[in-house]
Known about the structure:
Number of helices: 5
CATH superfamily: Alpha/Beta hydrolase fold, catalytic domain
Order of helices and strands: EEEHEHEHEEHEH
Number of domains: 1
Radius of gyration: 16 Å
Helix content: 25-40%
Strand order of the largest sheet: 1-2-4-3-5-6-7-8
Shape: globular
Structural class: alpha/beta
Amino acid sequence: MSSQTRKLQLEGAAGAIEAVRDEPAADQPARGVAIITHPHPLFGGTMDNKVVQTLARAFVQCGWSAVRFNFRGVGASAGVHDEGRGETEDLLALVEQVAPTGPLALAGFSFGSFVASRALQALWSARAIEKIVFVGTAVARLDVPELPLQAHERTLIIHGEQDDTVALTAVLDWARPQSLPVTVIPGGGHFFHGQLPLLKNLVVRHLRS
Length: 209
């Protein structure tokens, strides 16, 4: 664990939530708080997933405090998997605890993007969300809501060309009615093996725009 990373014990509707907070360098005041959600817990997804960690590093590099947490039933987080409903409640509870005010960003990978999109809907009318990043958006098996029109310019959607978990065509079918751009990584699979530096650079470019 680096000197800029610390463990958090937070509370959700089902009990304790295990989380970590990655901070920018001590001489760099945080721009705000980014909460990053992990892939499907029933298929091994945790806050230590490499894509999730890559997203956290990108946010920290750009001056954000990045919070990753384990969904209910994963690691030391209490409760059991709730198909996105309880997970969304937990994400909203985290916002209240780690970012009750100030700039907020949401990012999610795969199932995590589904949870983050639901939280975005709940928060949007009452809270400004400065940056949104969805990677491997899980539209093939889950009903990911459309994004608010005003959120489009703040949003980066990244997908692998050869993703065999969520087909690129499914993401384009979701994005097309919204006129929402999708950034495609040529040859990329769902977990972006060998392409995490490129993924990070794309996120950094978005955060600095």
